[in-house]
Amino acid sequence: MALPRILVLVLAGGAGGRLELLTDQRAKPAVPFAGVYRLIDFPLSNCQHSQIADVWVSVQFHPTSLSDHLANGRPWDLDRTFGGLLTLPPFQGTDRGGWHTGTADSLWRNAELVRQYAPDALVVVSSDAVYKLDYREVVESHLDSSAEVTMVTTEVDADDASRYGIVQVGDGGKITDYAYKPDEPATTTATNEVFVFTPTPTLDRLEALADAAGEDGLEDLGNQLLPDQTRDGLARAHRLESYWRDVGTVPAYWQAHRDFLAAEPPIDLDDPAWPLHTRGGRHSAARILRGAEVDESLVSGGTRVGGTVRGSVLSPGVVVEPGAVVVDSVLLPGARVRAGATVTRSVLDDGVDIGERAAVGGDDEVTLIGRRARIDAGAQVPAGARVPDPED
To answer: Which ranges carry the Nucleotidyl transferase domain (predicted)?
Structure first.
């Protein structure tokens, strides 16, 4: 029996506003994670390990920040003569041209390309979550069913459930109710933004919704498409039992890094059977200077540590000078903490410079310092503050 023809569409075009300063100058999928990776590495690595070689990435905001990382797709074995990696930017010239207004709108604008490819299954995924998943396994279970859509689900905290599409699941995995970001969630079972669609009926349904919407246009998949498929009894659930975390907000992004500081992290990023691949640069080994103290931290190549680092993640090129203290923080590439400064429960973006004896953050809310910001010597930046890029 021939393998099913699978197409993966990675929706990487959202503005990422909930990540605040971290997405002012970069696309959300290009945001660094765990030192040397980017968020888009998770779905692309899942594609490779699922042996899916046709991957389209829909881009929109700050496309160069993502294109530079994707290059030709080689780290994920997507540099192919036929198929492989294809980026889909917004375009002009047809009635499908224009700026994307949501995930359903993005799929509608590329519907003709999908029809021409003629996949047996269309996998649509977001790129702002940390997880590993065999997409092919989900596809095979979907094709064995009579469903029009299979939604991968996970359990979320009750106080956070209103941020997601919430489902109720009946016998045999059939989804009996779907509510998009409800004010009062009926359950804590959420879709994790991985969907497997049967292409032709889904795209036909999307065309009808677009015609009905007229000039108002389509929004997200959860606004109409998924509820309609659920109402018609054509939606089923595929439960993800392993780790999954949405990192689309600053607190969630910070907390995800805390998860990976554990002695046994929720995902082994170096697992020989399922490594996370990325387009890495060339960095020398990390340098831990005499007198430095490093505890429960991730320290990337190209860093230099002369001070104290506890419970933190240091990306390539970070410098923590002697006498500086970094606690429970995430420092992105090129950040520098000068002698005598303290950084607590904070995220420092690319190239941030913390002056001598400055104090940034505290034990309450996460503090965020935008890329290339300079904090003067002796300055005090309170917990929960937002310091933007000086060029904004």
So the answer is: 9-260
Helices (H), 187-261: 199-213, 225-231, 250-259
The position carrying tokens 């160069």 is 64
Q: Phi, psi (5° rounding) for residue 261? A: -90, -5
Q: What are residue 316's phi and psi, to 5 degrees? A: -55, 140
Instruction: Spell out the domains of the chain, with CATH numbers in brackets.
Output: 6-259 (3.90.550.10), 287-387 (2.160.10.10)
pTM greater than the 0.90 cutoff: yes
Quick check: 135 pLDDT over 70? yes
Tokens of 323: 């006498």
Question: Cα(367)–Cα(383) distance, rounded to whole angstroms?
Answer: 5
Phi, psi for 201 (deg, rounded to 5): -65, -35
Distances 280 to 75, 120, 290, 324, 352 between C-alpha atoms, Å:
9, 33, 28, 28, 21
Residue type for position 325: V
What's the gap between Cα 32 and its chain centre? Answer: 10
Please give the single-letter amino acid code of residue 89: P
DSSP label of 343: E
Determine the residue type at 155: E
Percent helix / strand / coil, the chain, rounded to 5: 25, 30, 45
Yes or no: say if 120 and 181 are a contact pair by the CB < 8 Å rule: no
